[in-house]
Amino acid sequence: MASWRKMIASVLVLMLCVSITACGTQGETAGGATGTVTVSGKNFTEQDILAHMVSSLIEAQTDLQVVRKPFLGGSQVVHNALVSGDVDISVEYTGTGWIAVLEQENIGDPQETYEKVKAAYEEKFGITWMKPLGFNNTYTLAMRRAHAEELGIETFSDLVEKAPELVLGATQEFLERPDGYKGLQEVYNLRFKETKGLDPGLTYGAVKEEKTDVNDAFSTDGRIEAFDLKVLEDDKKFFPPYYAAPIIRMDTLQAHPELEGVLNMLAGKLDEKTMSKLNAQVDLEGKKARDVAEAWLKEQGLIK
Q1: Which tens digit of pLDDT belongs to each residue from 237-282?
Q2: Are 130 and 265 in contact (CB under 8 A)?
Q3: Which long-range CB contacts under 8 A does 119-124 form with residues at least 24 apart?
């Protein structure tokens, strides 16, 4: 009987230890378990590349484990995930943070925009911005070059006169954002015959195949050159600067302060031309975003 009592007591002690250990590992970081961070990105190619770039760099330069959540959704979805703690790190654009998230007026100056959006995120959301990656991926509008030349369209203002005869194909997010079509309607009085909400990966092909006439474009997208599209001039400077930078929850950074130095290893290393080439490797050559990201990191000597 004594031996049975000892055995039962040992089992109970073991169960208690396991329970205490399990409880002790919950909630210690926003990503979940201790030593784990979650990196996410939005639902388009550039963000997919950047999410993997950040993730692979962290894995190579620290002992942290990374949970990757690429293509999570649009800007608001990723932002909400960061605020709630479901995600620790992502890459955001200064103009998106300042206008679409914080709902402020366009400042124009890139450095001032960065400083103000960084301060506001820290105060309001407990999220801070690392140093910018180096490129400005501004929104723009694009058309088939031959079509734009036929209609004599060089600028957004030129487009205003012809827009009632044309179809805009854009992401649903662009159609609804204040720094998207809604804002263009106010600033330029731009009105299209029809707008079509499309998946981010389909807007360029729709213009190329003449299913639409104009698309919302990113200045770093490799398909602009490949599809011979003409980028129209934003002659009233409506779009703000969209400099990309890693952003991270401040409690995550406090738990893992080494992440600041690691994320800032990317500062200033990506210009518009380089980012465009990386995007083209995925969209036009069919390479995987993670492979493209890691090949670039190796070229830079940031991972082995």
Answers
A1: 999 999 999 999 999 999 999 999 999 999 999 999 999 999 999 9
A2: no
A3: 121/97, 121/247, 122/250
3-state secondary structure 266-284: HCCCCCHHHHHHHHHHHHC
Which tokens belong to 199?
């998946």
DSSP assigned state of 288? -
d(CA 203, CA 200): 6
Separation CA 215–CA 269 (nearest Å): 29
Length of the chain, in residues: 304
Residue 254 is assigned to a structural domain of this protein = yes
Q: What is the pTM of this model?
A: 0.82
In this structure, the answer to whether residues 131 and 144 fall within a common structural domain is no
Q: Where in the sequence is the domain holding 289, given as residue range(s)?
A: 36-136+242-299
Q: What is the pLDDT of residues 79-132, one digit of tens each?
A: 999 999 999 999 999 999 999 999 999 998 999 999 999 999 999 999 999 999
d(CA 42, CA 51): 9
What's the pLDDT tens digit per position in 212-233? Answer: 999 999 999 999 999 999 999 9
DSSP state string for 111-170: HHHHHHHHHHHHHHHSEEE----S-B--EEEEEEHHHHHHHT--BHHHHHHHGGG-EEEE
Say yes or no: 92 and 110 in one domain.
yes
The tokens for 296 are 């670039």
**pLDDT range class, residue 32, cuts 50, 70, 90:** very low
What is the pLDDT of the chain when averaged over all its residues?
90
